[in-house]
Write a structure and sequence with these properties.
The chain is mainly α. Helices cover 66% and strands 1% of the residues. α5 crosses α17 and α12 runs parallel beside α17. The two termini are 14 Å apart.
Amino acid sequence: MAHAPTLTDDKPKIVLNQRMVWLIFGALMAGMFMSSLDQSIIGTAMPTIVGELSGVEHQGWLVTIYILSLAVVMPLYGKFGDIWGRRWPFLVAIALFTIASAGAGFAQDFNQLVIWRGVQGLGGGGLMILSQAIIADIVPARDRGKYMGPMGALFGISAVIGPLLGGLFTENADWRWCFWINIPIGIVAFAIGWFTLKLPSHRSGRRIDVGGIVFMVLATSGLVLATSWESWSGSRGYDWSDPLLLGLVIGTVVSAVLFVIVENRVADPLLPMHLFKNRTFSISTAVGLIIGAGMFAALGFLPTFLQMSTGAGVTESGFLLLPMMVGVMVTAIGSGLAITKIGRYRMFPITGMAIATLGLIWLTRITGDMSMVLFGAMIFTLGAGLGLVMQTIVLAVQNSVDPHEIGTATSANNFFREIGAAVGAALFSTIFTTRLVDNLTEGLATIPPDELPADGLGIETLTPGVVNQLPDALKELVVNSYAESLAPSFWAFVPLLAFGFVLTLFLREVKLSDTAGMVARGEAVVEGPPHNHGHWHGHHVAESDEDSGADEPAHEHGPAKHRAGDRRSGEHGPGGSVDETEDAGSRSR
């Protein structure tokens, strides 16, 4: 397989120093925050938005179009960044996202808003992927934990704080601020990126994998549209006699199969299949998918439950989810600092998946009249577990692949997490809705007809506002039905998280690299004193493998020479592990 060319000795190399790293890190955090925040911020503002813009019948498109466009472009940004460099794609992503935020904020009708949300996703996918890949370019894996920890915390924080901000803007200002808030952040991030993001750009004569791109877009679009069927089609449930739904599912499966076939045949695939022979990549990607499914399934219905059970408003229900944000933030940042200090990462995803599984089991005990202190402890536990895992597995993936494939591998890990979130949310919604209908039907049968609302009480009318206006007995029945439907739905996801825990037991402790990606590719040199733990970007204090208890890094660093045959066959040069294909597609020599 061909790789992006490395710089030759007659070309000036970029000088990396600590000040530059921190400035770039600030721009990356700002970009990643905007992208991840906009996945959840409009949830609480949705009723007001669709009411004002007359889009109630198609409101699901506001969420679906963003997730769809974001997921589709993730692999593209990852691959093109590896080929041509990441500076210009990152600046384009910030510009797209910022302009689209302004457009969405000034939208005059629902169709305009949907279009601008789609453009936001096109920029947001790049911000999420390139932020993590650029950190791998400028910071060695051995030091990367203290940067990726806050990134992981930011992703979890934005998932929780998004509904809170959406509620605050809607109730106290204008829903348009859900989008306008991105404009000053985007301008600052673009300015910092323009002046500090001194990353190399490449010319490449390689053929673009057009077939792979087409089938990836078709398969991803089909999957997202199928899993969000009810939100955009107007249908209630999955009617498999519907030709549109049937065609969508069949087309998705066929496109996915054709994508794999094409990727195995082209010279430079969008998603190299040899990455899946790398055990660290495969396990970490599977765990990421599980985290996406579990996290968003848990968050999807909790705000509504809190509004119903406590009578809290939109904003107050967001505050009640803050313990989860604190849990994610504390463990993500703490584990990142610990990894930098001790140089090992395997224990953190194992512990995190165990805690997250126990936290989800604990959530099955929720009731309509439970203490909010107890509820806060439950979601804090779940958040603490997820915080230990989210960015640690990205670090493990980046450390196990060839420096020339950092962007591709990072985008694949995030891509599958988004797919997990889409599928998990759809499955959870189906399980929950089915149980809720059954519970309400049984409960309402015990209520005298004269005590029921004149127009009935269907699942489509169960908004928190309606429920809180019901007589006490009827409200209690609805809230208990909601809680009794949530708890078994959480149980359905417990085996999934438990499987993720089992997978983490098979992760290998690959020694963390001491060399940043750009240094490994011969594109940069490092300026500055050694770190207090004794090494600095490629200058590692001697530590025997026997003492470290870790396998050799999956790639040795320095200006790279590659043997495509070795990567495809799983053969390794000296210095690597030979017990499996851990380094398949991963060795830079």
